[in-house]
Amino acid sequence: GAGVSQSPRYKVTKRGQDVALRCDPISGHVSLYWYRQALGQGPEFLTYFNYEAQQDKSGLPNDRFSAERPEGSISTLTIQRTEQRDSAMYRCASSFGTSDSYEQYFGPGTRLTVT
Amino acid sequence: AQSVTQLDSQVPVFEEAPVELRCNYSSSVSVYLFWYVQYPNQGLQLLLKYLSGSTLVKGINGFEAEFNKSQTSFHLRKPSVHISDTAEYFCAVNSGAGSYQLTFGKGTKLSVIP
């Protein structure tokens, strides 16, 4: 079946512009996660949804970052007034259930470059 | 708070030789442990996971890992590597107890030399 998809795969934007990154999870997966991966680092947690409810947003670095999942499926991560330090790979993952032990399936990521 | 340390950022190894990628974690509670692999231009793929039970865990592509609670380690091993194993490997921990986020190490780049 289809895996987690993310779009766009690459995004170049100018400082100060807003960007929206999209994640389409595996069908039937109730949990969705966003991570950010800087060059040479492992992914870092940003936020987590259970169905449409944002259960944990403790990893969002500041109020320029927001995420939504209005119908419990597709999610959008929005970065307002982008800065160069926002350049990174943004990864989305989904899992079948809400148990801690459920495997998280990752998408290919969106490479964001802020110039 | 939990953290993951991958001691080697790069590991070169000859084809058909054995390899061990090291991972240590710190957590004050019981943990679930994972190894993910990232091939170029692809997403992270789960290799194996430790949830409970036997401390020796077998995964895909001939990899295995051993959970050692006293040493807080979860090292990944393969007895004979192939060129196709060239990739970046990430160790991750989930503390359970209602915490859904994975904490990753910085990754180890495995280069298999023909």
Task: Outline the structure in words.
- The complex is a heterodimer of chains A (115) and B (114).
- Chain A contains no helices and eleven strands.
- With 115 residues, chain A is mostly beta strands.
- The mean pLDDT of chain A is 93.
- In chain A, strands 2, 4, 5, 6, 9, 10 and 11 form a seven-stranded mixed beta sheet that branches.
- In chain A, a hairpin with a 6-residue loop joins strand 4 and strand 5.
- The model of chain B has no long low-confidence stretch (mean pLDDT 91).
- Chain B is globular.
- With 114 residues, chain B is an all-beta fold.
- Helices cover 0% and strands 51% of the residues of chain B.
- In chain B, the strands form three sheets. In chain B, strands 2, 5, 6, 10, 11 and 12 form a six-stranded mixed beta sheet that branches. A four-stranded antiparallel beta sheet of chain B has the order 3-9-8-7, with no helix packed on it. Chain B has a two-stranded antiparallel sheet with strand order 1-4.
- The chains are: A mainly beta (115), B mainly beta (114).
